[in-house]
Every structure is written in C-alpha cells, then in structure tokens.
Design a protein that fits this description.
With 281 residues, the protein is of the alpha/beta class. The protein has twelve helices and eight strands. InterPro entries: AB_hydrolase_1, AB_hydrolase_fold, Carboxylesterase_BioH.
C-alpha cells in the first residue's frame, strides 16, 4: 500500500501489473464502504496486459478523512485527478463501481483530458433514474426505508445491515466476518455523506448536454439480478449517452466486480479491445 498527497488529500493507493509505456493504463474507483483492494479479482485478470492503480476513497481503507468543506464526491474527484496528474503520460482508462462510478463519470465530464475511456458498473446516480422514470423514487424509498429509519434512530449497525441487504453481495449479515460487519457499521455515516450527489446533481452533469458531449468511449454495466434501480439508472444514462455500450453480467448483483470479477474483467477487456479497433479504423 502506498501513500501520497493527491489533490491536497492524504490518499492510500495500490497498483497491479507492470509499469510499461506500451501498456494501457487504468484507474479503478471502488464502491462506498469498501476499499481499493476490492478490485483484486478484476485487476488480477487484467494484470497481464495492463498497468493499473486504485485508491481508497476518503474515510475508506487507509486514506485520510473526508473534508466536509467540499462534497464527498468532489473530494474523491480531486483525489482521482491528482493521482492521474502525478501518473502523467496522457489519458487513462477509468473503471468505477457504484459510487465510484459516479466519481469516474464526473471526472470524465470535468477533466476529459485525463480519461481515455470510461467503464461504469451500476453507477448510483439516482437523480438520473428518478427523473427518467416516474415512480422509481417511491419504489426506491420503500426499499430503503429500513435503512433510513435505523440511521435516523442512531442505530448504525441496523442501518448497515439494512443497507447491505439491498446493496451487498447477497450474503446474510450474520454470515459476514465480524471485522467486516464492524467496518460497515463504522463507515455507514459516509452513506449519508454521499446523498448530496447520489440524489442531487450539484455538478450539473445532467444539464446542458454535458454527458452527450463526452467524446471518450463509454461502457455501462449492470448485474443480471441487481437492484432494479441500477438498470433504470443505466437506461437513463444511455439516453444521454446513446453512444455508450451496454453489458449485463449474468448471475451478478450489485457487487459484481467482487463476486463475478472474471466476467466483469472480460467485459472490460472486450470493451477496451473494441476501443483499439475504433482507434485504428
């Protein structure tokens, strides 16, 4: 594990593959309540051909805390941009999962010179889905009510349990290792911290045709058995990015990059290969 100051923020990060100018480079951004090591399965699959880096989001893993003077997403974007600026040598491929996918999307919108291609697994940009599908928010709120009620009551363990029942890897709370349950419980306030951008759009990504204006190739991925909200969000994003490719990972839910790492890696690999073909055409 390495430690650097990226975008003015204490950032822990790791790497896979070999540093080689002939290789494609990829930045991977993990989901909330996890850490950069969640990419191990995907990275191992891609390592023979790529040079990859991933960092811990604010307040996650070994990175420094979130500074509440900026949004959680904004600080995450600053860290990602700082890492890429220090890496140098032009734009890189960016892969994001869940909240990390919203960070990747904002990075591509605000710093397009840093992003060669964009692969997103179930970005939790609820605002896009809610605006496009009437009734989706009510369905979402009903599904997430146990989490919201527990968190409002100060029951962080109950909130973490309820949250993971929707957005986890399918295992019952009691079957998770104790250390993992404790980590999820300790970090659950960070879920509230990302509401501003997951359920709003302070960066204006959905306005003024900003997504349509993206010029990098885009891949939207979702799990076959994931929450319906994830598929609807991708539906909404694809309307704004009609050039985006779409892949459904068979048998996977929201934690597909962990539970179905090989399939996700294969989808990303095929997407990058098609980008090479487009570039050479």
């Amino acid at each position: 594990m390495l430690h650097s100051l990226f975008g003015g923020h204490e950032t822990a990060w790791r790497s896979w593959g070999e540093e080689d100018s002939a290789r494609r480079r990829m930045l991977m951004i993990h989901c909330s309540l996890a850490h950069s090591g969640a990419w191990q399965g995907v990275a191992t699959r891609l390592a023979p051909e790529m040079d990859m880096r991933a960092f811990d989001l604010p307040g996650h893993g070994k990175s420094g805390d979130w500074h509440a003077d900026v949004s959680f997403q904004e600080q995450s974007v600053e860290m990602a941009a700082g890492l890429l600026e220090s890496w140098g040598d032009g734009p890189v491929d960016v892969l994001g999962h869940s909240f990390g996918a919203t960070v990747a999307l904002r990075l591509a919108v605000e710093r397009p010179e840093l992003v060669r291609s964009l692969a997103l697994y179930e970005p939790v940009f609820f605002t896009a889905g809610f605006r496009a599908f009437p009734g989706l928010q009510a369905e979402h709120d009903a599904k997430m009510a146990p989490y919201a009620e527990a968190y409002a009551a100060g029951d962080h363990e109950g909130a973490a349990r309820a949250f993971m029942s929707v957005w986890g890897d399918g295992r019952a709370w009691e079957r998770l290792p104790e250390a993992q349950r404790e980590a999820f419980t300790a970090r659950i306030p960070l879920i509230d911290a990302i509401r501003e951008t997951n359920y709003g759009d302070p960066a204006g990504m959905l306005s003024r045709g900003r997504l349509t204006a993206l010029t990098c190739p885009v891949l939207l991925m979702e799990g076959e058995v994931g929450p319906i909200f994830a598929a609807r969000i991708n539906d909404a994003l694809q309307v704004q990015m009609p050039f985006a490719e779409r892949v459904v990972i068979e048998g996977a839910a929201h934690m597909g990059p962990v539970t179905h790492a090989a399939q996700v890696a294969d989808a990303v690999q095929a997407f990058l290969a098609s980008d090479v073909v487009r570039s050479e055409a």
